[in-house]
Amino acid sequence: MIDFTLWDIVRNLLLAARWTVVLSLIAFVGGATLGFVLTVLRLSGTKWLRYPINIYVDIFQGTPLLMQMFLAFFGAAALGFNVSAWAAASVALILFTSAFLCDIWRGCVEAVPKGQWQASRVLGMNYLETMRHVILPQALRLSVPPTVGFSVQVIKGTALASVIGFVELTRAGTMLNNATFAPFTIFALVALFYFALCYPLSCYSRHLERQLYDAGLR
Amino acid sequence: MTLVCVKDLHKSFGELEVLKGVDLDVASGEVVAIIGRSGSGKSTLLRCLNQLEQHDGGTIEIAGQHLDAGAMTPNDLSRNVGMVFQSFNLFPHKTVGDNVMLAPTVVRGVDKTVAERLAREVLDKVGMLEKFDAYPAQLSGGQQQRVAIARALAMNPKVLLCDEVTSALDPELVGEVLRVLEALAKEGMTLILVTHEMKFAHDVADRVVFMHQGRIHEQGPPRTLFEHPETSELKQFISAIL
């Protein structure tokens, strides 16, 4: 049997942490883009757009991310599509993230006072002009703290990609444990890695929240 | 010349009938003050004129533009009708100047330099030019309301609707806003104001309209109306507020 030094373990976890970061970024950028489009469509008021989006959000908020991963991976295979763990994990995380961000951002848009809509309306601005110039700039400021806060959930969510064979931090930890039989050391290190990724974001989110509070917007 | 012509206006919110047939003509350059108890339909009448509320029956005609019940609001209604709110509703993320310039540039497509000249002109008129680069949160309530008036004026409306524009202000700030409105009235701007400032209605309005239970109950020149009210409801209202 090969002997693993502590450095070997840390080095391997560091290498795997890259993929946790990359997968988080894919999920976040993809989910934010899709979530933004969904938010604007959902708020436009047409019920033919609003209802399907509500159902979409409810489904992804109401089922475990783990099941979404399984369905994206095994479900696609059952339908005859041969998807990689990469693709399945990315798709599942993007959909999951978009549903949550769509809901968070809807709340932020609705938190902008009604009078702003009315003032824009009497000045002759239409829906899109009002959104662009009046509502979104204000909603955006409100949305930054909860959005950064939610990105922490996305990072931790990537751990579930390990169950479909995607080698990220958690999966690497499991593999190292199989080779070294030192679960406490390894999973403590894995947890530490996640903490190092998430804690700064949590702090940043709290800092932004305080800034909003000081600006008198909350 | 009749600028605003309202005939048999009806509006309900669910079961509650708020306007039960209102007829009102306003001439160009006229200053009309609408008074009455809360719940009498004053604000709803005003909000129907710019279609923030869609009326259920009757007709509204403003500067030749017909607003029919159940029809789409014409996109260019804002060309004719401006409005100032009780709660100012300035855009908090924009400077005073940008607040005023936004609608002319976005809605009218006015060039940025032209819009800025226009903004400076209307802000000067309300005495707020020196706050061009300030944000609304840095201003007093009275100053914010003056900016809101300037923002409405920048769209060059034919009639300006004022919905209790001094009700949210500290007493010592009411005067500066009323002085601006008085100056506008002198310039010949058509004003329709819902107000609780009876002295202002008395001194500045050409006509006072008393609303009661969704109808115009009594109207006339302010002196006649305040000093010789005919109906018992108006007598009661006047004695209650004086």
TrEMBL record, chain A:
* GO MF assignments: transmembrane transporter activity
Organism superkingdom: Bacteria
Question: What UniProt keywords apply to this chain's record, in alphabetical order?
Answer: Amino-acid transport, Cell membrane, Membrane, Transmembrane, Transmembrane helix, Transport
Q: How does it sit in the membrane?
A: Multi-pass membrane protein
Q: What is its main location?
A: membrane
Might you name a Gene Ontology BP term for this protein? Answer: amino acid transport
Q: Which GO terms of the cellular component aspect does the record hold? A: ATP-binding cassette (ABC) transporter complex
UniProt-annotated location(s) = Cell inner membrane; Cell membrane
Family designation:
Belongs to the binding-protein-dependent transport system permease family. HisMQ subfamily.
Protein name, as recorded: Amino acid ABC transporter permease
Highest classification ranks of the organism: Bacteria, Pseudomonadati, Pseudomonadota, Gammaproteobacteria, Oceanospirillales
From TrEMBL, chain B:
Where is this protein found? Cell inner membrane
Q: Which GO terms describe its cellular component?
A: plasma membrane
Q: Which GO terms describe its molecular function?
A: ABC-type amino acid transporter activity; ATP binding; ATP hydrolysis activity
The keyword Transmembrane helix appears for this protein: no
Kindly indicate whether the keyword Phosphoprotein belongs to this entry. no
Q: List the keywords (alphabetical).
A: Amino-acid transport, ATP-binding, Cell membrane, Membrane, Nucleotide-binding, Transport
Q: Where is the signal peptide?
A: none
The principal localisation class reads: membrane
> How is this protein situated with respect to the membrane?
Peripheral membrane protein
Task: Show the Gene3D superfamilies listed in the entry.
Answer: P-loop containing nucleotide triphosphate hydrolases
Q: Where is the ABC transporter domain?
A: 4-238
Recorded hits in CDD domains, A to Z, give: ABC_HisP_GlnQ
Supply the InterPro entries for this chain.
AAA+_ATPase, ABC_ATPase_HisP-typ, ABC_transporter-like_ATP-bd, ABC_transporter-like_CS, MetN_ABC_transporter-like, P-loop_NTPase
What's this protein's family per the entry? Belongs to the ABC transporter superfamily.
The protein depicted here goes by the name Amino acid ABC transporter ATP-binding protein
Provenance organism: Billgrantia endophytica
Q: What is the lineage of its organism?
A: Bacteria, Pseudomonadati, Pseudomonadota, Gammaproteobacteria, Oceanospirillales
